[in-house]
Structures are given as C-alpha cells and as structure tokens.
Fold this protein.
Amino acid sequence: MKGKMHNIFTRLLWAACGMGWLTSAAQSNLNQQLAGHWSFDQGNAVADVGSANGTLVGAQTTADRFGCPDRALYLDGNGAHVKFGNILGGQLSGAGAQFSIGLWVRPDSVHQDAALFSKFSQSPCGSNQRSLQFKSLGGAPALTTHMGNGAATQYRTVGATNPIPAGQWTHLLLVFDGAQNGNDGADRVQMYVNGMLQSTSLLGGAGVLSDVASSNAQIVLGGVLGTGGAFCSNAFRGALDDFRIYDRLLDATEALALAQNSECQCLGLGPIATACPGDPIVLRPAATAQSSLWSTGSIADSLIVHYPDSGWFGLTAILPGGCIATDSVWVRWLVPPVQPNLGPDRSICTPNSALLEYNEQADSIRWSDGTSGAMTVAATSGTYWVEVFLNGCSASDTIEMTEFSHQVSLGEDRLMCKGGTYTLQYQSPEIIDSVRWSTGATTTDLTVTAPGIYHATVYARGCPASDTVVIGENEGIELDLGKDTTLCAWQFLILSVEQQGDVEWSTGETGHTIIVNKTGNYWVELTDSCGVHRDTIRVQRVVCDDPLTLRWINAFSPNADGVNDEYEFHPIGDWREFKLEVYSKIGLKVFESNDPRTSWNGKMNNTGEECPMGTYAVKVYLKDYDTKLQFHTGTVTVLR
C-alpha cells in the first residue's frame, strides 16, 4: 500500500512540476520593473522590493493562501488598513502612465463595495476628489478614476462582472495602459482574475490620470485616506496578500504565471525538534498541505516520532496554492534526569524524622513541602513527592510516610544459677523485622552463660526499640532454721524461710512461715531455678519452771483456722491485780485487759480493724496479796 501511495504522490508532483514548466519563462520575468512588492511574510508591511515600507493600522496577521501562518494581513472592515504614504507618483499618474497592480484577496463576504487599493488626493473626504481606486464594486473587481469638480465626464469605472468569491483566495491583476499609440487614442484597462482575462475596457479619452498624483496623495490598502489622514470609509473586510506594483504592462502569460506563483517556503519543520524520551515528537508543517510525503514513506498530515528514533526527517508537500514545498528537520532526544527513587512506603520512627534525598544531576528539584534542595525532612505522616528537572525534562516519585513507634521488653533483672545458662527473650506487640543483641547475635533469643548487662535492639517496620537487662549470678541458697532448741510447755517456735521459691515443710504446709510447739524433727525444702535446698531443726518440748511465774506465747495466727487463733496470757499463782497492754511498733496501744482470762484476737481492742502482721510489744503488771508489784515485758508476733 505504501508503494502504491508513493507512486500516486509522485504523479502529483510531476503534474505540479509540469504546470510549472508551462510558466517557467513568465515566472523568470515577474521581477522585472517591479516597482514595489510587499509579501507581508514577516507580519508587517516592510517592502520586499523598493524602500517604501508601509504602516499597519489595525491590521492583524493571518494565514496566507498556502496555509502558512502569519504571512498575510487581515482587515476587519472597521477602518483597519495599510498606508504607504505618497509614493510611486510617477508610475501611477500622468498622460502616458503604464502600470500593473496585482494582489491576492479573500473577502469575508460577497458584494462588498470596498477599496482594495487607492491613491486619493482630496482633503477632506468628499466629491471633489482626484483618485485612483482598484476596488470591489458590488463584489466584482473594478477600476474607478475620479478627476474632481463633480463632472460626470471625468468619472470613469471599468471592470469585470462576476463577484469575487467569499472565503477563498483570488488573484486580481489590473493592467493600465495610458499610452495613446496603438490604443486608439484612449486609455485601456485589462482586468485579470486568477490569471485569466475577464474584461478589456477603453476609457473615454486618453490621459485621465494626468493630475491624480498630487504632492500629498497616499497609497492605501483596504480603504481610502484623505490628505489630512482621515479614513474615508470604503473599508474592506477580509484578507490581503502579496501586493505588487509594476512600472510596466504584464501580458497574459505573465498574468497567469503570477496567479500560479508557487514560491512557497512555509512548511516550518526545522531546524531541530527535541523532546524528552517519554514524550513523542510530533512533526507537523506550519501549512495545511493537500498532499504530503515523509521520508519514512508516511503520507499522513503529521509524523509521530518515538524514542529512540532520531536523525533527519524530510517532508515534500503540495500546498493549496499548488506549490511544491520541501523541508527537513533534525530530531534529537533530550537527556532526562535520572528517575528518582524514594523507596517503598515506610515509617517515620518517632520521635525522630526521616531524610529523603535526590543526589543525581538536575537543573532544579522541587519537593512536596516547597523546598528545592537535594534533600528534605519528613517529620509527620503524609504523602511526600519529588520532581526533578534536567534539560527541560522532568521525572518524579512519591512515597507514603507514617509515624510509628514501638516498645520492647527483656523483663526484670534476674539471677542465673552459678555455672548454668539463661535464655533471654524479648517481648513486643509488633511483628519484628530483625533483632541485634549487644553480643552481636541476631537470633530471636539469646542464651547467656555468664552474668552481665545485656542489651537488645529490635526493629519493627524499620524502626528500632531497645531494652537492657542485668543478669546476676545465684551463688547458692543456704537455708538456716537455726539450732536445735527446747521449748517450755506453753511456748511456741516460729520457723521461716526468706528466700524465694517453692516451699514444702515436714508438716505438709507450703507457706514461708510455720509455728511449732511439739517435740519433733522439722525440715523444709525450697525449690527454685537452681535446684532443691533443705535444712532441719530438732525441737524438744519440756516442763520447766517459769522464774517469772508467766507463760509467754510469743506468736499467734488469727486466721480462724482453729489453731492458735488468739493470744492468751496465763499468769501462775494467785494475783490480786492484773493488767496487760499490747503496743505497735510506733507506740500505739492496740489492746488492753485487766482480766487474764481475756485473750487478744489480733484486732484493735478486739473489735476494730485487724492489726497488720508483725511484732508487737507486750507489758504485764502483776500485784500479789502482799502488795508486791511485778512488771514484765516481752513481744508477740501476729502471723496472717
């Protein structure tokens, strides 16, 4: 298909070139005796030939007949025009004037009565005028001359009959021959439309332009100006292009060549097209072509180039005016910045912050917080992004940051058995990434063989948490229930173990303290992490005389178990008076009795709150019938 379309396009090119051969000789003459030429290709009225630069008054640029942007002028019909001043007076007036005026027009509407070209010498605007106007009269091209004083015989209008089409480009050429020889003694006017002769007219007499070129008459496109500068209406609405004035007569062949002039250079592809690798380069000519052929074989209106294709790309096109244009462009890809990589979404380990960096080459860097350096600080939860620019190209990356903190525990400080081992484990509510112990180990738990200070740093979601534990050494427990002892019948003995562990007594009890008052061998076993520890004591109960005539009970346990629940005090003998007082460690009296038959139940004055476990001071006052007073002190221990 590509080959077939290429052949079709080749035939189009040959046909267009053949058209050019027919007029090649005429084309070569189009610059001879060219008194003035204004192509408007630069968006202004600078003269391409001659030095008569014009001035744009309200005129705007527009596309020309080839579709090339800003290479023609648009007049809005509200006074916009182009003025050139008082120029070319010798070429456009006098008894034997011979000249040709050509231009391209594209009216917005048909049947406009508007001046396309004028040279007007009357001030102010009025009927007593001396003027030459090439105009659209009722929509058809016409020449109007007016020699002043309102005389009808001095007013001449000649031209074509068909109106100029609206919305499309039409070439108009006026050829004025004021010479008397060979012209039947009268001025002759020829009107060409698109290179074809439309009418030939003879004015009433020769020399009608003898005084049209007064000293201050201006040439104007798009309307008429009086000598005072006032705009005399007759405004044209539409586009004008390629305005030419010749100081000679153009023949029919030259008229056709001028209408078929194909000197178009408006493809506008080059010289260089650049883009970032991620963006395609679209090659599109400035003008709208009727047919296109790219160097790749494509016949599309535009060509899309993708990375990494580069180098020269050419275009040959036939434009609406029939001209053949060629152009080429060098395609080059810009060097983009290195793609930033902020990494995966992660946590901000509070109370710290996270550092985000981009250390590659860049013309500029823009962070989401408005900073522009190579790095920024993320301190709170949120979305962070960076955009980097290099050679006009950009790249970006985004990361989600979340504030996070956690805790880890190695437990309380503890003892390990001498010569043994102990396994440390951390406790954490989070899913752990990794752990590092102070020994360098990275295992989940750590078995230690010696006492010391141990530290663990645990990472969860990339954030660390630490704890430290002290491991001491248990050098061995030595239980000591004391030496074998003897008790009077009324006495009790408290046996206790202070060390931590599981306790078992020979009595079957499991508490750390027991009370005994019977003869026997009593032993205790303490079991802890380091093993079983044991001790034994022999208790002998005997009958003995009390030198104080008192039977002391040194401990009781008011726990309502029916055994030794109350503190009883029994004096021996016949006493006339008796008084018992019990005091706490801070000297508070907690019990008092004058009756030796009343025992203490461990409560404040036997009715109040329970007294806490501990040792209490006891005072006893005795008086016999001989009025001999005795005072005794001792202690009693409350066990609960």
Summary: The helical segments are 2-29, 89-92, 252-259. The first strand starts at residue 34 and ends at 38. Confidence is low (pLDDT under 50) at residues 1-24. The chain has three helices and 46 strands.
